[in-house]
Structure formats: structure tokens, C-alpha cells
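Entry 0007
Protein: YdbS-like PH domain-containing protein
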Amino acid sequence: MLPSLLLPLVGVLFVGGFSARSYAYAAAGVFAAVVFSTIRWVTFTYEIVGDRLETKRSLISRSVRTIPLERIRGVDVSTPPLHRLLGLTILKIDTGASGGEEEAKLAGVSLDEAERLKTLLLRRTAEPAAHPDLPHAAAPGPKERPIIGVPRRWLLYGPLSGAYLLTPFAFVGGAIGLAFQWGDDLGLSQDDALTAGEWLWGHPYLLLGVAVLLVLAMPFAGGLMYAVFNWNFVLKRRDGYLVAERGLINRRSVSLESKRVRGYEIVDGLAERWAGVVRVWAIVTGLGDSETRGQLLPDVPRHVAFQVTGDAIGPYRSDLRPHPPIARRRRLFRAVFPWLLVALAGVAGLWATGSVAWWVLLVLALLMAGVGVPLGLDRYASLGHGYDGGRLAVRSGSLRRSQAVVERRAVVGWRLRQTWFQRQAGVLTLIAGVGAGKGGYSAIDVAEAQGVDFAAEVTPEWLAPFLERDGS
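Output (C-alpha cells):
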């Protein structure tokens, strides 16, 4: 708990002017934290009893939590810097019953104990048996088999991932927030902040220079953060589980039960697509925090991603089917028409006032409308759906393109959604309900007959009675 007290203790010292009383308050806070943590440690116990794990806490009121081993979906082991220094680790148990939160957390066990507990907690799981829809399934292999170790040179792909590129702006925003929060303690008043803001506004070239520096720092800072989180990424199969390990400062190991994996999602942005790299997430039933725990691969070359997913989960062996031409017109309309409205507003404002600002708005709107044409065409080219007899696939998006591949056995229902504009165009959105991952994956703007035929192809036993009744 002590690292989390650092900022509050600094605040106490600043407020107290670094007097003897402020040091006394800080020391009292540290002492109280140590006592509280010690009591929590003494009053918390865990035990594996038969086929269940029991955790007990009796700090003020007695609490007993029982977790059946057969309900455990995965075990997440992480070692933050302080834990690593002390030879400890954090073990989190996920049952899928608590959404994005872990069901149980042991925040201070030794490395050997964590490995022992992982083996005991997952001992009931074996390699998934062969399934008629899984042509890749084979006899169980060795207890631990490496699938891929991501080479460190591939960390250079990190700046292509859009989320990490905003790292410099996040740091600046955090610094500004801390300045406002602790400004009075540091001797900076709101008047000082306003004066600094007015001075920067009066020196626009300096402000522009800072913005340019932040933009130039984006690939470097983004690449650094990406490397810290994905350092030495390893994916392997161990006793019926897919195990992903990654991280430089906080080393993390996530176990996903193979027999609960229902597919995978391949994601790429524009820059990643130009470089030929993708990211991969597993689609798993009952997995909390799937956006981080379900990651199978960071940015890797596209052909490597398909090889790994084929080995770890199963390949998709069919081409994606194109969507009707009306879907292209809808993509172009959405990408261009809003900017044409803005341009029209710019023309009206220019006619009414003649201000230069309206000229700027008009030019920018026309430029964005021009950019919308290739963007709309790319969004249409990204649309697709298909079925290979064992798995179905749907793809959509452009700035963030996503292709989900889901096993047929994972489909629990279909939903056909049609807006008023889609009805006029004769298209619809077909959503495959899946009891895993996001809960549903959509084939957007398919022809009406195409959507019904696709659902009937994947699950003919469900739709055949309705199609016969309609005379189809």
C-alpha cells in the first residue's frame, strides 16, 4: 500500500509547509497504513478444499467466498515492480461471473506458490476433445508447447497502434491536471494559470511549436509504451490452456481455457493495414476484461497472425463474400454527405458576412469530403462475411477494421435488424448471437435474401421450418 500513499503524503507535506507537524502527520499515515495492511494480511486466508477454493476475510465482519474449481475460466498472474523486488506476485482468478472484475485475488503470494496454485486450480482441465465442427483438433500434445515468441524487432510496429500514439498528450494532460490539483500547495494560483494561458495565447508560434513537438514525440513515446506493455510476448499451450505472457515492468501471464475459446478477432487500423500487421484477441465464453485478458497477439505480420490462430484455435478456410453495391453507396453517402452540409453552411456564411473564417471552414469541409471518398470505398471493401462449414466470419470497419471468426457451435441465435434507410435500400444487418466475446458479431448491409440465406446455411435446422412455411 505504501506506493499508493506517495502523492497524499507529498500533499500533506506541502499543505503543512514541511513543518514538524506535517512530518508527524505523514509518519502517522505511514504507520496506520502498515498496521492496516498487517491486519488485512493476518485476517485473510485461502484454502483448496476438495473441488473448491475458499477465501476467508475477517477484518471487521467475517466473509467466506467459495469458488468451484470447475467454474474457473482462467488464472492471471502478474508481477508489478515492487512485488518482483520482494519475490512476490499477484494471482487473479476469473470465473466470468463478475463481469470485468476478477472473482478472487491473492495479492502477495510467492512465485513458487503462484505456480503451485495455478496447477491446482486448473488441474481439472484437459485438452478439448475432437469436435465435428473442429477439423483441426488432434490428439493431446505435450503438457507445454510454445506457439510463438514475438521477436523484439516486431516491437517497432508499436507506433502503428493508434491508442499508444496519444501517450505524449496523455502525459501533458496529466501534468496540467496535477498542476491544477496541487497548484495552491505549490504556490501557483488560478490567476497565475490564467496569466500563463494568456501569455501562450499571445505567442501562437510557441504554442504551435509545442504542438509540433508533441506530434513528433508521438511515435517515440507510443513505441516506448507499447514495448513496455508487450515486451517478450510469448504464446504457448499448457495443459489445455492458452497462456499469453508479456510485459517489461509488470510481467503478466494470462491463461485462457482452450475448450472455452470460441474463435478470434483480428483487428487492424489504416496504418497497420498499410504495413501488413494485425492484432488478435480470443473470443472466450465467460471472460472478464476481455479487451486486455483476451489478447492473443500484439502487432504481428498478417500471415503470422493467421498461422498462429490456425495453430492455437483453428483456421478459417473460405473467402469472404462481398456485399451488394448499394452498401458501397451507403458508405460513400455517410462519408461525404455530412461534410457537404458543412460546406453548404460555409457558403451561406461566406455569402452573408464575407468573413475569412467561412472561407477556411469551406475549404476544410471540401477537403474532408474529398478524403471521405476513398474512406467510404475502403469501408465497403472491408465488408464481408463467409462460412467454411465449421466457422463463420464477418468483417467491417476501416479506421478500425475487425474480422471475427466464430465457431458454428458458438452461435446461439440470429438477429435481423433493419433501419428505415436500410429498408429503402433493401439491405439489413445480420447479427450472429454468440455466448462469448462481445455477445454478437454483425454482417452489416447484406442484401435481404443474402442475410436469410447465410443464417440458413450456418444453422439450417433452425430456419428450415420457417423457410418452408414461407414457400422458400
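Curator remark: The first strand starts at residue 44 and ends at 49. The chain has 16 helices and 19 strands.
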